[in-house]
Write a structure and sequence with these properties.
It is built from 16 helices and 15 strands. The protein has an eight-stranded mixed β-sheet, with helices on both faces. Strands 12-11-13-14-15 form a five-stranded parallel β-sheet. It has a two-stranded antiparallel ribbon with strand order 5-6. The structure holds ligand SAJ.
Length: 427
C-alpha cells in the first residue's frame, strides 16, 4: 500500500518507519518545515536509539519519503498531538490534519486517526472534514487506532503491544486490521471508533488514579510513621493488587492530560477521576513544603538544586514535568533554583550546564527524576560543593543511609521519618 503519515513526532515517525520496513511505500508529512528538512538530511530528533536507527534507515533507503505536502495514498495515518488548554482538549491539530487528508483522499481510501481524542471525535471530525471537501464519508473507510506505546521503549512496544482498532463499520475495522497486521505482532482487537477512543483514555486515567492512590498512601504513611515503599511492595505480593509508585507529581503529555477528556465530557460522573487529578497536582506543592521545612531562613538567600527536568526516568522530554511546577513554586516563594538534567535540552527556563554548577553553594538538593545517570551522584562530592546538607528525595532513589553518613539531613517521600525536624532543630 501507499501510506501517508501525517505528523512525524514521537508516534508518527516510528510508525511510518515500521510501515516502510514492512514493505509499504510511505510518505510522511509534518507541518514543521525545519523538522522536514532535518529528517530529509537524516537528522532524527530524540534520544531513543531504536527509533533513530529505524527512521534513519527507512529514510536513507528511500522507503520512507518526507514530503512537502500530504500526498494522495491508499491509507492515511494521522498522528498529531492533542494537548489541553485550561483542561479542555485542543483538537485543532487533529482538525487541521483531517481537513488536509480529506482534500487528498479518494473514495475507498482508509483514514486512521491514532491521536488520543475524547470519545466520539474520530467519526465527527473526519466525517465533517470529508463533507466540507464535498465528499461522502460513507465512501471512505474510517478507523481509530490509538497509539499505546510507552516513551522509552517505543519501537519494541509498537511491534509487540496489542492494538485496539475501532472502525466506523465492522468492515472498516477489518480493513484497518490488515494494515496493522503488516507490522504489529501483538493481538489486534476490533471494535467501534467510540469504544476504541474510550479504551485509550481509560488506560491512561486508570494509571493516573492508581498513582494518585500511591501518592495519598505516601502522605498517610508519613503521618503513621510507616514506610510506604515497603507497604506497597508487600501489598503488591497479593495476586490481585498492583499499586504504582508515589512521586513528585505526574508529568508527560498523556497521563495528566487524558483524564480531562473524560471529566470534560461529564463533570458529574467523574468525581473519582477529578479527585485523583487534584491529588497528583498537589504533589509538587508537597515537595515545596518540605523545602520550606528543611531549609529554614530567608528564601532569597537560599539556593535549591533540582536533579532532573524530564517528566520521568531516562527520557529527554520535560513536557508537563513536575520539576517545572516545583521550580515555579520555589521561585514564587523567592528561592534561587538551578535545574540539572543530562538528557533534556528544552525546558521552561535555562538549565544548569553541569551537576557541579547545580549543587555549588546549594542549600538543598532535590531528586526529582530517577534517571539512571544520577546513580553516579555521590553524597561526598555533592556535600563538598554544597553550602547546606539537605537531601529531598521525591522518588526514594538514593540510598538515604549513605547520604546521612555524609552529614546530610534527608527527607524521602513516603519513608519513615529518618531525619526528623527535631533533629534538624538541634543540628
Ligand atoms: N509515574 C509515577 N509513578 C508510577 C509510574 C509513573 O509517579 O508508578 C509518573 C512518572 O514519573 C511520569 C508520569 O507518571 O511523571 C507518567 O509516566 P508513565 O510512565 O506512567 O506514562 P507515559 O506518559 O510515559 O506513557 C503513558 C503510557 N500509558 C499507560 O501505561 C497506560 C503509554 O502506554 C501511553 O502510550 C502513553 O501514556 C500515551 O502516549 O498515551
Amino acid at each position: 500500500m501507499k501510506i501517508s503519515v501525517v505528523g512525524l513526532g514521537y508516534i508518527g515517525l516510528p510508525t511510518g518507519a515500521m510501515l516502510a520496513e514492512a514493505g509499504h511505500e510511505v510518505c510522511g508529512f509534518d507541518v514543521n518545515a525545519q523538522l522536514r528538512s532535518r529528517l530529509r538530511a537524516g537528522e532524527i530528533p530524540g534520544t531513543e536509539n531504536p527509533v533513530r536507527e529505524l527512521a534513519a534507515k527507512a529514510i536513507a533507503e528511500g522507503r520512507m519519503r518526507v514530503s512537502e505536502r500530504i500526498e494522495s495514498a491508499d491509507a492515511y495515518v494521522i498522528c498529531t498531538p492533542t494537548p489541553t488548554i485550561d483542561n479542555r482538549p485542543d483538537l485543532s491539530f487533529v482538525e487541521a490534519a483531517a481537513t488536509a487528508v480529506a482534500a487528498a483522499a479518494r473514495p475507498g481510501d482508509l483514514i486512521v486517526l491514532e491521536s488520543t481524542v475524547p470519545p466520539g471525535t474520530t467519526e465527527r471530525i473526519v466525517g465533517n472534514a470529508l463533507r466540507r471537501a464535498g465528499k461522502k464519508p460513507g465512501e471512505f473507510r474510517i478507523a481509530h487506532c490509538p497509539e499505546r506505546v510507552i516513551p522509552g521503549n517505543i519501537v519494541y512496544e509498537l511491534r509487540h503491544n496489542a492494538r485496539v482498532i475501532g472502525g466506523r463499520t465492522a468492515s472498516d475495522a477489518r480493513y484497518a486490521r490488515d494494515l496493522y497486521a503488516s507490522f504489529v505482532d501483538g493481538e489486534l482487537m476490533l471494535t467501534d471508533c467510540t469504544t476504541a477512543e474510550l479504551v485509550k483514555v481509560v488506560e491512561n486515567t486508570y494509571r493516573d488514579v492508581n498513582i494518585a492512590f500511591a501518592n495519598e498512601l505516601a502522605l498517610l504513611a508519613e503521618e503513621l510513621g510507616v514506610d510506604v515503599w515497603e507497604t506497597i511492595e508487600l501489598a503488591n505480593k497479593h495476586p490481585r493488587v498492583n499499586i504504582l509508585r508515589p512521586g513528585p507529581g505526574v508529568g508527560g503529555h498523556c497521563i495528566p492530560v487524558d483524564p480531562h477528556f473524560l471529566s470534560n465530557a461529564n463533570p458529574f460522573s467523574t468525581e473519582l477521576i477529578q479527585t485523583a487529578r487534584r491529588v497528583n497536582e498537589r504533589m509538587p506543592h508537597r515537595v515545596v513544603r518540605r523545602v520550606v521545612e528543611y531549609v529554614p531562613g530567608e528564601p532569597a538567600e537560599k539556593k535549591i538544586a533540582l536533579l532532573g527536568a524530564a517528566y520521568k526516568a531516562d527520557v529527554d522530554d520535560a513536557r508537563e514535568s513536575p520539576t517545572q511546577r516545583v521550580e515555579e513554586l520555589l521561585r514564587e516563594r523567592g528561592y534561587r533554583t538551578c535545574v540539572y538534567d543530562p538528557l533534556v535540552t528544552s525546558f521552561s527556563r535555562p538549565l544548569c550546564a553541569s551537576l557541579e554548577e547545580a549543587v555549588a553553594e546549594a542549600d538543598a538538593l532535590i531528586l526529582m527524576t530517577d534517571h539512571a545517570a544520577f546513580r553516579a551522584v555521590e553524597p561526598g562530592m555533592a556535600g563538598g560543593l554544597m553550602r547546606g546538607r539537605v537531601l529531598i528525595d521525591a522518588r526514594r532513589f538514593f540510598d538515604a543511609e549513605s547520604w546521612r553518613a555524609a552529614g546530610f539531613t534527608t527527607y524521602v517521600l513516603g519513608a519513615r521519618a529518618s531525619s526528623s525536624l527535631a533533629d534538624l532543630a538541634m543540628a
